[in-house]
Structure formats: structure tokens, C-alpha cells
From TrEMBL, chain A:
It comes from Gulosibacter sediminis. The keyword Cell membrane does not apply. Coiled coil: none annotated. This is 2Fe-2S iron-sulfur cluster-binding protein. Keywords: 2Fe-2S, Iron, Iron-sulfur, Metal-binding. SUPFAM superfamilies: 2Fe-2S ferredoxin-like. Belongs to the adrenodoxin/putidaredoxin family. Its cofactor is [2Fe-2S] cluster. Residues 2-104 form the 2Fe-2S ferredoxin-type domain. InterPro entries: 2Fe-2S_ferredoxin-like_sf, 2Fe-2S_ferredoxin-type, Adrenodoxin-like, Adrenodoxin_Fe-S_BS, Beta-grasp_dom_sf.
From TrEMBL, chain B:
Keywords: FAD, Flavoprotein, Oxidoreductase. Residues 312-397 form the Reductase C-terminal domain. Pfam families: Pyr_redox_2, Reductase_C. This is FAD-dependent oxidoreductase.
Length: 105, 401
């Protein structure tokens, strides 16, 4: 089964194993990984599921909606910023490590 | 010290979390009559309904353990004795129990209003409020061909959109002459109507107020759903409730979210609170629930202060994203930014010279700028004339020149 590793700002990390089709946002909520809020329930409308993905990992392109929302993140948007609700385990990646931002709200 | 929170929805769960974030180390008891792990409501009428995913949990099960929050599911509030600071609960079997509190937070949300029905058991008309409702509707929708939706508020529109997207014949009955009569400008409402028509929803306007399920005889359907707002004050299912708890279409609270009874607060959908201009509002949105949850927790830990946050809301209908910041009370003028024909625009609504509300359709960045703007002094510089200037954007208005 796919897995996601969340690296926190303090250097600690948490790895969770998830069903296919689970987003990075949903997996964090289900598994009590603090640092992702997911206020809009995964609609690309709140930017509180912001994560940084590692350089060089192939992921689907940022859509227009996602791009516009990424302009609204609380922590700085970087080149590798993504919305956690838009990336699904099994569909977009099998194993992925993401860095959590300093804050979401 | 023990804080008891009744209702583990968006408001109650946030209140429990913020109590711990703010250093509260007493007991927290979080109760809900629903037996499910607390979940998010918005997906129930959107992609959650369409996809059949499990309800999205508000927090994972271990969250409650980790923070030492005693989560009691399947427990319904039946009465309050404010003098003794005791509440009465009933479990699913009707077994009664009591629990004492030092502070009590009422976060019981709203309950969907239904049409009258001679025999509630025989009711064939559905509402959409809980995960159970959504599961039933999903099943029924799979087999239905003709769907009738009563009510043109957000839930009615969202449900109609999902049903139409699934290829059903959908008729939406609206009392008024347009959709979202109370909650959005005519500009936005008309755009959405056209958008949903294109998705296959048929609209019937000016339908006489339906009170009874029998009034639906003229509208035969395989599946009928009503989205006609919420009950006035659903705190107590039966018992007399609490003597002295002031209610008026919701539980009345002061600016710090205190009810009329000592040690009792109310937050979220159930609370009717005075806004910055002293007008009482009851706001049904995730933002309002979570911010009031945070606010009440801080009040309990650090002392009361006035609640004053810019409200915001979102809705998704057949792929169109609507976001609203602010409250449109008293709005009498508007300026449209962007191009409705292209499906991307914002409606700036003014009460006189004052910007009070911004509705954004497929313009999330406008929405985020509007929220910041409405919370800042900069909003004062955005008059109808200024907004109509060529080159005006909400983002540029945020940065003082
Ligand atoms: C289908 C649907 C779609 C929505 N979509 C959006 C949206 O897109 N955007 C948005 O901003 N808002 C949306 N909302 C509104 C939003 O979900 C509510 O404003 C929010 O849930 C309010 O939070 P709350 O905690 O006050 O109440 P709730 O989330 O309703 O939680 C109240 C809880 O109290 C429990 N309870 C009630 N009575 C008792 C009792 N006597 N004893 C014990 N427990 C009790 C209930 O079981 C419930 O779990 C939607 C609502 C619905 C129903
Ligand atoms: S959960 Fe809201 S943008 Fe991802």
C-alpha cells in the first residue's frame, strides 16, 4: 500500500500507510498528523493543506485552481509548494515524503 | 475543573483542541448524539455525495486520546440544571445519566427543517444534514430517475448539481423569484442558475410555500429532497430544556458568546450573536463554527473578549466555486470585477460607501484578498467609485499606496 512521510519543521517525522486514492490531506487528518488543517474538506479553496514536495519527484502539473490557491498560503509559497488535497496516493505517487510548512492559518 | 462541550461538530471539536492549545489541563468531555467519529459536513452535499468516500473525519481517532479529550459518542443532551451545573444525557437506548460541569459549551449545530408529515415514519421526503442522511441519499439517488429538490439555498443547489451531474432529471422548486434569495446578490445567483441549467437542472420559481408533504403531490419524483433551512432552536429534542436559557431562533449569546445562564456558552450554527454593529446574527458556516470554537476556548482559559471575525463561506456547484467574504446586510450597490461570461468574477457589495461583502466565482485569490481586506482598515478606501476605476484589484487595495 502507498505511504506518505510528513517531515515537521522541528525535524521529526511521521509515516503513514494509506489506501489508494487517499489524499495527502485526508491521510494526515485520519492519522492525526498535526500540521495540516484541511478546512475546506479538500476543495482547493482554503490552502490550509499546504505542503512542500521534494525536488525532482514527478507529480501531476499544478492546475489553475491549485496555482491560484497556492498564492494564498500562510507560509511562503516556494517552487515546490503543493496543496495536499490535490495529490492522491496510488494515483499520483506510491511513496512520498513531504515537508510541512511552519503554519497553515 | 471540567469543561463539557455538547456537540462534536466543527465548533465543538475546535473548542476542545484550542482549550489544550491554550494550556487548559482540566477535564474536557466532548459529547455527541451521533455515534460516528466526528466528521466534516461540507463534503456531504458535494464530492463526498458524488464519490461515496467515507465521511472525512474532523480529526483522527487518536487525536482525542493524545489530547486527553474524553469523547463520548451516542450521548444526547436532554436537559440542563444551571443552578446545580448538571446536564442530563440519554444514550441510544434512552438510558439517562448525569454529568456535572464547571463550564458548559453548547455546540449542537442546527437541525434540518422538514415539511410537516402526518406520519413521520412514512415520510418519503429527505433532508441532508448528517452522514447518515448522505448515505441514504446516495443509495436512493443511484436508483432514481426523477429528482425533485425543494429549496434554493446552498444545500438544495449543491444536491441538485450532484444529481444532475449523475444524469438525473432534476427539478428544483424555489419559493422566490431567484436562487439564494437571502445569501447572495442577484448577479451571482443568476450566474449560478444559468450554470446549473447548463448542467441539466430545471428551475421552477415562485412555487407557493410548501408546508406539508402532501403539497408535493404536484411534483412526482423517485426522490424528493428538501433544503429549506434549519429548525429554530434544536438544543433539546424533547425535555423542557433549561429554564432561563434565552433563545430566539437559536441560543442568544452576548458579544463574548456567553448565554443568559452563568457558565454556559454557545457557539457555531446554534449561536445568535451580536456582530460589530450590534445586530444579532446566526451564521451557518465552517468558518464561523471553528473561529467561535477557538474564541470560546480562549475565553474559558484567559477570560472573555468580544468575538469579531470576518465571516466567510464557500459552495461548489457543478464545478463552479463560489466563495463569500463578509455579510451583505444592507447592501445596496455593487461593482463587478472580472467577466461573468467567462465564468470568473467577483461581486463587490456595498452598503452606501462601505464595502461589506465580496462574492467570488472561480476567483479564489480574490476571495482570499477580500477576507484580508475586510479585516483591515484598508477596506474603508474601497468605495464603489474606487472599485470601478480601471485597473482596480482587490489585491492592490490590500497594499496601501
Ligand atoms: C450538507 C451540508 C453542506 C455544507 N456545506 C458547507 C460549505 O460548503 N461551507 C461552509 O462553510 N459550511 C457548509 N455547511 C455548514 C457547516 O457544515 C455548518 O455551519 C457547521 O457544521 C456548523 O458547525 P457546528 O459545530 O456548529 O454544528 P454541527 O457541525 O452541526 O455539529 C453539531 C453536533 O452536535 C450534535 N448534537 C446536536 N444536538 C445534540 C444533543 N442534543 N446532544 C448531543 N449532541 C447533539 C450533532 O449530532 C452534531 O454532530 C454545510 C452544512 C451541511 C449540512
Ligand atoms: S483542503 Fe482546502 S485547499 Fe486543500
Amino acid at each position: 500500500m502507498p505511504s506518505i512521510t510528513y517531515r515537521r519543521v522541528d525535524g521529526t517525522s511521521a509515516t503513514v500507510v494509506v489506501d489508494e486514492g487517499t489524499s495527502i490531506m485526508r491521510a494526515a487528518l485520519q492519522n492525526d498528523v498535526a500540521g495540516i488543517v484541511g478546512e475546506c474538506g479538500g476543495q482547493a479553496m482554503c490552502a490550509t493543506c499546504h505542503v512542500y514536495v521534494p525536488e525532482g519527484v514527478e507529480l501531476p502539473e499544478v492546475s489553475d485552481d491549485e496555482d491560484e490557491m497556492l498564492e494564498c498560503t500562510t507560509s511562503d509559497r516556494l517552487d515546490n509548494s503543493r496543496l495536499g488535497c490535490q495529490l492522491l496516493a496510488g494515483r499520483d505517487f506510491d511513496e512520498l515524503t513531504v515537508d510541512l510548512p511552519e503554519s497553515q492559518v | 475543573m471540567r469543561v463539557v462541550i455538547v456537540g462534536a461538530g466543527h465548533a465543538g471539536v475546535q473548542a476542545a483542541e484550542t482549550l489544550r492549545d491554550e494550556g487548559f489541563d482540566g477535564e474536557i468531555v466532548l459529547l455527541d448524539r451521533d455515534a460516528r467519529l466526528p466528521y466534516q459536513r461540507p463534503p456531504l452535499s458535494k464530492d463526498g455525495l458524488a464519490s461515496g468516500d467515507e465521511p472525512l473525519p474532523l480529526r483522527g481517532a487518536v487525536f482525542y486520546e493524545r489530547l486527553g479529550i474524553e469523547l463520548r459518542l451516542g450521548a444526547e443532551l436532554r436537559g440542563i440544571d444551571p443552578g446545580a451545573r448538571v446536564i442530563e444525557l440519554a444514550d441510544a437506548q434512552g438510558e439517562r445519566s448525569h454529568i456535572t460541569y464547571d463550564e458548559l459549551v453548547l455546540a449542537v449545530g442546527a437541525r434540518a427543517r422538514r415539511l410537516r408529515c402526518g406520519d413521520a415514519q412514512a415520510s418519503r421526503v429527505h433532508v441532508l444534514r448528517t452522514a447518515d442522511d448522505a448515505e441514504i441519499l446516495r443509495d436512493r439517488l443511484a436508483d432514481a430517475e426523477r429528482v425533485v429538490v425543494v429549496g434554493s439555498g446552498f444545500i438544495g443547489l449543491e444536491f441538485a448539481a450532484v444529481a444532475a451531474t449523475k444524469g438525473k432529471r432534476v427539478t428544483l422548486l424555489s419559493r422566490g423569484s431567484r436562487v439564494l434569495g437571502r445569501s447572495a446578490s442577484a448577479t451571482t445567483a443568476d450566474w449560478l442558475t444559468a450554470h446549473l441549467r447548463a448542467a441539466g437542472v430545471e428551475f421552477v420559481f415562485g412555487v407557493e410555500a410548501l408546508a406539508d408533504e402532501r403539497d408535493l403531490a404536484d411534483w412526482p419524483a423517485d426522490l424528493t429532497v428538501v433544503g429549506i433551512g434549519v429548525d429554530d432552536c434544536p438544543v433539546f429534542a424533547d425535555a423542557a430544556g433549561a429554564a432561563g436559557l434565552a433563545t430566539d431562533r437559536g441560543v442568544i449569546v452576548d458579544a463574548s458568546l456567553r448565554t443568559s445562564l452563568p457558565g454556559i456558552w454557545a457557539i457555531g450554527d446554534i449561536a445568535r450573536f451580536p456582530d460589530a454593529r450590534g445586530e444579532f446574527q446566526r451564521i451557518e458556516s465552517v468558518q464561523n463554527a471553528t473561529e467561535q470554537g477557538r474564541h470560546v476556548a480562549r475565553a474559558i482559559v484567559h477570560g472573555a473578549s468580544d468575538y469579531d471575525e470576518v465571516p466567510w463561506f464557500w459552495s461548489i456547484q457543478a464545478g463552479a466555486k463560489l466563495q463569500i467574504a463578509g455579510l451583505a446586510d444592507g447592501a445596496d450597490a455593487e461593482v463587478v470585477l472580472g467577466d461573468p461570461a467567462a465564468g470568473k468574477f467577483s461581486v463587490l457589495r456595498f452598503a452606501g460607501e462601505r464595502l461589506v461583502c465580496v462574492e467570488s466565482v472561480n476567483k479564489p485569490a480574490d476571495h482570499v484578498a477580500a477576507r484580508k481586506l475586510l479585516a483591515s482598515a484598508g477596506a474603508a478606501s474601497v468605495t464603489p467609485a474606487a472599485a470601478a476605476e480601471p485597473g482596480f484589484t482587490l489585491k492592490s487595495a490590500l497594499v496601501p499606496a
